[in-house]
Amino acid sequence: xxxxxxxxDAPVEVLRVTGGHPLQGEVTLTGAKNSVLKLMAAALxxxxxxxxxxxPEILDVEIMAELLRRLGCDVTxxxxxxAVRITVPENPDHRADYDLVRRMxxxxxxxxxxxxxxxxxxxALPGGxxxxxxxxxxxxxxxxxxxxxxxxxxxxLLAQVPDRLTxxxxxxxxxxxGATETILMAAVLARGETVIDNAAREPEIVDICTMLxxxxxxxxxxxxxxxxxxxxxxxxxxxxxxVPDRIVAGTWGVAAVMTGGDVAVRGANAExxxxxxxxxxxxxxxxxxxxxxxxxxxxxxxxxVDIVTLPYPGFPTDLQPQFIxxxxxxxxxxxxxxxxxxxxxxxxxxxxxLGADVRTDGHHALVRGRGSLSGAPVEATDIRAGAGxxxxxxxxxxxxxxxxxxxxxxxxxxxxxxxxxxxAEISREEVSDR
Length: 434
Ligand code: EPU
Description:
- The protein has helices spanning about 35-40, 60-70, 100, 110-120, 135-145, 175-185, 205-215, 245-260, 275-280, 320-330, 350-355, 385-395, 405-410, 415-420, and strands at about 10-20, 25-30, 50-55, 75-80, 85-90, 95, 120-125, 150-155, 155-160, 170, 195, 220, 225-230, 240, 260-265, 285-290, 295, 305-310, 335, 355-360, 365-370, 375-380, 400-405, 425-430.
- By secondary structure, it is α/β, with parallel strands linked by helices.
- It folds into 2 domains: about 1-30 and about 245-430, Enolpyruvate transferase domain (UDP-n-acetylglucosamine1-carboxyvinyl-transferase, Chain, Alpha-beta prism); about 35-240, Enolpyruvate transferase domain (UDP-n-acetylglucosamine1-carboxyvinyl-transferase, Chain), CATH 3.65.10.10.
- The structure holds uridine-diphosphate-2(N-acetylglucosaminyl) butyric acid.
């Protein structure tokens, strides 16, 4: 059989956005990507059937489901009920292969549960990605302090526990979300007490702690930077609803401001977005809190707003590209400082194709607002960059074609239908890649 030839014009999906329509109406949120993946991994900690509800319809959930299946779990995704049911065997497998890990970095979150439950984990190293180098040193140091033997060989992180993990006093150099989760999920089944100092406090961490507590875990200090975990011998399966996606909620808020629209975001927890909503007010929006979310109204051109990203409760890095898009059409200039991911400004080169004036220097970006942007083809390099480019397309003159749609699909459930429902002119199309 002749060898398959590479094709330079294979079809690819794009989003075509025609700018100039204010967004009006309401959207309803689903659960947070950055929580649901960890909740699914946490299911590994108890044999039996765990049900997770308020699950977003995103690609990453499907990848995590496949990863759990390969570990021996039975996973069903009930789309109508937005629920995932995970039946975990008594003896799960412990290998997470590169073909899945390379598609979804968050696969690393099975590391803690596997070490705790099976006493071993072979997890492919995810490597860096388009937003930065993304080390794992704090995950590894935490597990080692608890008695795990961790090494890396042939691209895999290999963790072994001779007997059972032992609780330990651990501290993080930086309140890493991932390292907090790995150590937390390992500690709940360890012998004795674990302390995690300088722990991350994101609402998604609180969500996992809440689920683990319902499973029988003993955790104090939830939502603070010191977590105290008293290990237990076993946990039991539960049903748990995923926390609403604050980043998707914030993205809708920015979209309302940029387009001079009026959008109610239902099913949101506004307390998780305090700083971001205040920034929208500084930009000139009226933000009203609703019983089940918030509403953002805007008239006229937004004012530029400075942003400094920090771990929660600071301004989230996952809203930084969207706020750069906002600043690119604002009155005045804004200084945006990115403190989490060194490469997260990469996407400004794409925004520049639409006419944005952004200069970067290390972890600072100076954005000078322009009166208008002009539609052009652009490439999304990660989820949030993709969202930022779509938002820019909503206000650019003419048509913007966004490539790299799979990135957006990883984090935004039903993005195109929701945008259309709000009055945006946007469609998903297949084009030849040339
Ligand atoms: N870091 C280390 N060593 C470690 C752990 C982290 O150097 O052992 C560094 C990272 O390289 C990075 C910084 O610390 O520069 C922050 O990393 P963190 O561990 O806090 O982030 P994460 O767990 O890798 C999660 C979200 C990200 C979100 C960040 C910060 C998931 C699946 N991902 O990543 O979400 O930006 O927390 O809030 O939960 C996104 O959704 O677009 C996204 C990138």
